[in-house]
Design brief:
The structure is a single chain. The chain is mainly alpha-helical. Helix content is about 60%, strand content about 10%. It is built from five helices and two strands. It has a two-stranded antiparallel sheet with strand order 1-2. Helix 1 packs antiparallel against helix 2, helix 1 packs across helix 5 and helix 2 crosses helix 5. The longest helix has 17 residues. The N and C termini lie close together (about 10 Å).
Length: about 100
């Protein structure tokens, strides 16, 4: 049975309210959404999903991307060298959120 969710897309990306716990949604998103990415991008997205599970939906704000990149890679330029363009990073960040609220 699917969880009842309220979904939408706002300025900060995709959002949703579901009956399941963040940890369960993050685990489901890992299974469904990480397969199509290179190892480094999968690790970055897994880091984002863990932050969401630990701290809540605020971690999914597009404004948090820079913080994640700084913490994990030291800055945007270093992250681009590993993950690809900022556009690719942003696209993956938003795409993985879609798997949280399906």
């Amino acid at each position: 049975m699917r969880d009842k969710c309220v979904r939408g897309k706002g300025k900060s990306g995709i959002y949703g309210l579901c009956a399941t716990k963040p940890t369960q949604r993050a685990d489901a998103a890992r299974l469904a959404g990480l397969g199509g990415y290179e190892v480094e991008m999968r690790q970055f997205l897994d880091y984002v999903l863990q932050a969401y599970a630990d701290h809540g939906v605020e971690e999914l704000s597009l404004g948090k991307i820079r913080d994640f990149l700084r913490i994990r890679y030291g800055g945007t330029n270093d992250a681009k060298a590993v993950l690809g363009s900022v556009a690719d990073i942003r696209k993956a960040f938003v795409a993985i959120q879609g798997h949280l609220f399906r």
